[in-house]
Amino acid sequence: MSLAEQPSGDDWDAVAEAIQTRLAETRMTQLDVASRARLSLTTVRELQHNLNSRRRRPQTLAAVSQVLGWPPDYLQQVLNGDQPQSHEDEVKDPVLQALDGLARQIQELRERVEQIEHQLAAEDAKP
Question: Where, if anywhere, are coiled coils annotated (predicted)?
Answer without folding.
Answer: 99-126
